[in-house]
Structure prediction request, 99 residues.
Amino acid sequence: MGQEFVLLISSSVFCIGACGFIIRKNPLIMFMSVELMLNSVNFLLIAYSSFLNSLDGQIFALIIMTVAAAEVVVGLAIILTIFRTRQEMDVDHINALKG
Prediction:
């Protein structure tokens, strides 16, 4: 597995996640798209960590996974709260968090 292959796979998965985040209006799909983007960065960090024989990329990937897990918990809690009160899942019509 060469560096070009790693860059190609990581950039294609990141682009799929970015397009999914921009195009879709469902918050759950948007969260899955953000997770795709984070996983593509993790794949790139771990692959280059392996290429360079260093543990720094793997440590950063572990930190990113921890932050992503916390982000998913908070995001899903907000989505469930809004869905219970509004019975709607379209991002364009959600303004319940305005102060």
User: Anything to note?
Assistant: Helices lie at 3-23, 27-52, 56-86.
